Amino acid sequence: MACASCSSADGTPRGCKSNGTCGTDSCNKLTVFDWLSNMQLPGGQEPFNLVEVRFKNSRKEYFRNQDKLPLKIGDLVATEAQSGHDIGQVTLTGELVRFQLKKKKIKENSEEILKIYRMASQKDIDKWQTARDREAEVQKRAREMAIFLRLEMKISDVEFQGDGSKATFYYTAENRVDFRQLIKDMAQAFSVRIEMKQIGLRQEASRLGGIGSCGRELCCSTWLTDFRTVSTAAARYQQLSLNPEKLAGQCGKLKCCLNFELDAYRKALKTFPKLDAKLHTEKGIAVCQKTDIFKGYMWYAYKGDWMTWHLLTNEQAAEIVRKNKAKEPVASLEEYVLDLPPAKTEEKVFENVVGQDSLNRFDRPKQSKNKKSRNKKPRNRNRNRKAPQKNE
Fold first, then answer.
1. What residues contact residue 369 under an 8 Å CB cut-off, 6+ apart?
2. What DSSP character marks residue 334?
3. Which residue, of 130, 156, 191, is where some domain finishes?
4. Do the beta carbons of residue 271 and residue 296 sit within 8 Å?
5. How far apart (Å, rounded) are the C-alpha atoms in residues 384 and 297?
6. Cα torsion for 80, 86, 87, 92, to the nearest 10°?
7. DSSP H helical ranges for the chain
8. What are the φ and ψ backbone dihedral angles of 63, each rounded to 5 degrees?
9. In which domain, by residue range, is 243 found?
10. Sorting pLDDT into bands at 50, 70 and 90, what band is 385?
11. Beta-carbon count within 10 A of 308 CB
12. CB under 8 Å to 185, separation ≥6 — which residues?
């Protein structure tokens, strides 16, 4: 990740100075704007003693500030861990932390909430930076060990604890993997405690980052935190072609953006009759051929006359379906057909954006040199010479 390579000695990014995103690691992912920072607490009220701390990538945890340290956003702190201590950056303090706990359904008096030891000293930061510099090499060697043991897994990322005593390996796998021998080999090679954590393909893409087909950074690596399942029904609701090459993201799964507008499509389709509903008329049975959700149009065709389509609105189609259920007679679809005015075609005037040059100037065939030489008239070299005089 970018912050592992661009961080300076004091732990702050060199490029953005914690003022924005560095383009790949998304420093501002999951950042909450503290709009209460310039407001003072009422007299006699103590500040909220829980603090939000961010670690590598998008991992955030909440810690208890028992010693009432004067913490502010951006401070590096040494936090309690299961064994040893970890180094993280404070991302939120004050009353907004209370709202974040309610949002994530975490109890304030939970015993699982650990505490903050102290402000990180320069010795802690140097040790933490040394451990993070080892991550790329350790990840490469761990992959080689997994390949040697023929394990069907992919180690996507490594995260060292702040004190360097523990390393967490994030991996993806389709099936269950027996990595007991791998843990023994890695513990012997790296001399640290090993923890294996399996993540999904979407979580892997969010940790690695990248550029999507839209030309922007991946949503999962910048702002998206709720990885909901995406099914092909989302593409069917939006009338998209089921092409896996276009619908799949870099993680190999269906794109998360298919869910962004799904609720709007489902709400609009509530006013439409079912697409498989047939319209029974005295002229024949009509079947839906095409729909336009935005304009509210539906095209129907009679059985046996599939080439002739009849345009109806969704209200007209719903009315015919209602009459069919009530067994009311419907003569034909021609009574409801919608006549649209022909589309106006404006003549486009193209300008020469190149200037005086023509756009097809390179399409002109070139004349050969031999042809030019044939067209030229031969020179009369002797025309300037005087005629020889005859001797009498």
1. none
2. G
3. 130
4. yes
5. 88
6. -50
7. 2-6, 95-103, 122-133, 135-148, 180-190, 201-208, 219-222, 232-237, 244-247, 262-269, 314-325, 369-375
8. -130, 155
9. 229-270
10. low
11. 9
12. 145, 149
Place of tokens 């970890």: 86
Q: For residue 12, is pLDDT > 70?
A: no
The predicted structure's pLDDT at residue 20: 44
DSSP code of residue 382: T
Measure the CA–CA gap between 71 and 81, rounded to whole angstroms. 19
Residues 183 and 258 in one domain: no
Residue 378: the pLDDT is: 58
Q: How many CA atoms lie within 13 A of 202 on its CB side?
A: 16
Structure tokens at 76: 């590096």
3-state secondary structure of 296: coil
pLDDT attached to residue 27: 53
- Give the Cβ contact number of residue 162 at 10 Å: 25
- Backbone dihedral angles phi then psi of residue 367, each to the nearest 5 degrees: -85, 140
* Same-domain pairing of 87 and 102: yes
- Do 319 and 330 belong together in one domain? yes
Based on the fold, state whether residues 6 and 126 are members of the same structural domain. Answer: yes
Report the relative pairing of strands 193-198 and 166-172 from DSSP bridges: parallel
Question: Where are the extended beta strands (E) located within 173-276?
Answer: 193-198
Is 340 contained in some domain?
no
How many domains does the chain divide into? Answer: 4
Residue 52 lies in a domain: yes
Tokens standing for 359? 């756009």
| Domain shared by 88 and 31, yes or no | yes
Whether residue 376 lies inside any domain: the answer is no
Q: What is the pLDDT of residues 121-180, one digit of tens each?
A: 999 999 999 999 999 999 999 999 999 999 999 999 999 999 999 999 999 998 899 999
Task: State how far the Cα of 47 lies from the Cα of 98, in Å rounded to an integer.
Answer: 11
The residues with which 311 forms a beta bridge, in sequence order, are: 299
Do 197 and 317 share a structural domain?
Answer: no
The yes-or-no verdict on residue 370 having pLDDT over 80 is: no
pLDDT at 33: 76
- 270-329 confidence digits (pLDDT tens): 989 988 899 999 999 999 999 999 889 999 999 988 999 999 999 999 999 999 999 999
Same domain assignment for residues 92 and 75: yes
| Averaged pLDDT, 243-248 | 89
Asked if residues 324 and 300 have their Cβ atoms less than 8 Å apart, the reply is no
**pLDDT confidence band for 22 (50 / 70 / 90):** very low
Q: Is 358 a member of any domain?
A: no
Q: What is the pTM of this model?
A: 0.67
